[in-house]
Amino acid sequence: MSNQDLRTLSELLVDEAASGPAEPERLPDAVGLLEISHDALFALSATGRIQFWNPAAEELFGWTKAEVLGTQSHDSVFGRVSKEFLEAQAAVMTDGGWTGELTLARADGKVVHTLSRLRLTRDDDGKPQSILIACSDRSNQTEWEQQSLRSQRLQCIGSLASGIAHDLNNVFSPILMVAECLADRFTEKGDTELVELVRNSAERGAWVIRQLLAFGRHHPTERVELQLDQLVKETSRLARETFPSNISFSTHTAPHLWAVSGDIVQINQVLLNLCLGARDAMPNGGRLTLAASNVIADDVFCRMIPEARPGPHVVIEVSDAGNGMSDKDVGSLLDPKNPTRADPPDCGLGIPTVAKIVRAHQGFIEIQSRPKEGTRVRVYLPATCPAETGTDTHSEPPPPPAQGERILILDDEQAVCDGLKRVLLLHHYIPVTVLDALEALHIFANDPGTFHAIITDMMMPGIQGLEFIRAVREISPDIPLLVMSGSLGHSEEVRLAARGDVSFLEKPFNARTLLWKLHDAQRDRPAPPPT
């Protein structure tokens, strides 16, 4: 490239609006200026060969200078998305310059959105010599603009939903009032059943309107004490009436469900998002399960879920029989440091939206999923005054203390082993914790009679849980086994593969659940020999 070309290329970087050529003293080292530019700068010959390629161009497009210099641009760099680039080149040849947005290809196959400025240079005879190009990366700005447009569309939908809901309120209100009047006038059984049908239908319609109004609100409401059992039942009823007929439902709420403090609009959005996502994950139909129960998160429980906080919680569970997700996808969805995360294709769950609401309520989320076997999402919300709102199975007293039974614990997570060990020691067991399955088998095989039970995880590096269980059964067919897992489907696998006494501990669990399972597993066994 000539010095004049370098100066012209520098002008694109320094001041696009400047008129006339830059004076030499203003650009004492044009090449140096181009090399340190944050904009991708490159030049093409009149025949389309790449003549110049600065470090910023290497970073933006992924090709090194050695790979592209001297090559035809449409063969090596811009061949896959060349149409608009060709149009820009044609405009430059006619008008001498062009400025606009271009979508260009990277070496890895991805595309980048750029603001591009093209300038034509000519030789002493006035013939086209080079096309000088400066590209600024606008990918992040383009993504922000798209998110802003989506947000605006959602606001419009919310406003439209609110308007429709107010109009429908005027339709259903007189129906409900008339139904009440007719109920007093008609006493025959057939007539009262018809009136009751009209009233129930109008009440269901009024409930749908309340959901539309909640969706249309743009500002959060005050947090109040909520009883989630009714909200779960209403959401299930709405889903049954509106979802495709090839989706079946299972709904369960524990008795004496504790209250939570929350924004009813946002909690309702969590339930609707999860149910709609579960529906989308099952295009060919399947079972959708919606449940709510009480749970007390203790030290053992919190070691199994990184975001868990100790204390009483109400857990809302939504599960589907859809395509499921890999462990990598699950981890990405729950990573609060990854603001650009998105739901994997076909997983059917708006997790980022749900996670933001749940964390704002000081709660946390747990996802259990296996590819092609479905997904289960559990939302944990802190309970308010659980002692005053009733009791359930989680409030039962712990079992009687142990008598020095020796328990082998196998889990590749040190934190889980430490938590289990602490609980068992406090309850007078003698725990032996191991992080490696082969080491655990060696310890157990050397003296199986001294162990009263084994607690093992299903997912471990090297030997998997089922292999470990089979090996243990070969050594001691009747040793009680407590199998821990946080993945769907493992419970049935364990029952089919294990012979003899086996219990399944679904992660996460608390200390009381662990102690009762262990107590029940040993109920009919003789006392262990002294150690």
Walkthrough of the structure:
There is one protein chain. This protein is an alpha/beta fold and 531 residues long. It folds into four domains: 3-137, Beta-Lactamase; 145-219, Orthogonal Bundle (Helix Hairpins), CATH 1.10.287; 222-396, Histidine kinase-like ATPase, C-terminal domain (Heat Shock Protein 90, 2-Layer Sandwich); 397-521, 3-Layer(aba) Sandwich (Rossmann fold). It is 43% helix and 22% strand. It is built from 18 helices and 17 strands. It has helices spanning 3-14, 30-35, 55-61, 65-68, 73-76, 82-95, 139-185, 189-216, 228-242, 264-280, 299-304, 327-333, 351-360, 414-426, 437-446, 465-475, 490-497, 511-521; strands at residues 40-45, 50-53, 97-105, 111-122, 128-137, 224-227, 247-253, 259-262, 286-297, 311-320, 364-369, 375-384, 406-410, 430-434, 453-457, 481-485, 502-506. The strands form three sheets. Strands 6, 7, 8, 9, 10, 11 and 12 form a seven-stranded mixed sheet that branches. Strands 2-1-5-4-3 form a five-stranded antiparallel sheet, sandwiched between helices. It has a five-stranded parallel sheet with strand order 14-13-15-16-17, with helices on both faces. Strand 16, helix 17 and strand 17 form a beta-alpha-beta unit. Helix 10 (264-280) runs antiparallel to helix 13 (351-360) and helix 15 (437-446) runs parallel beside helix 16 (465-475). The longest helix has 47 residues, at 139-185. The chain is flat. It starts with a helix and ends in a 10-residue tail after the last helix. The relative contact order is 0.06. Mean pLDDT is 77; it is low at 14-28, 338-349 and 387-394.
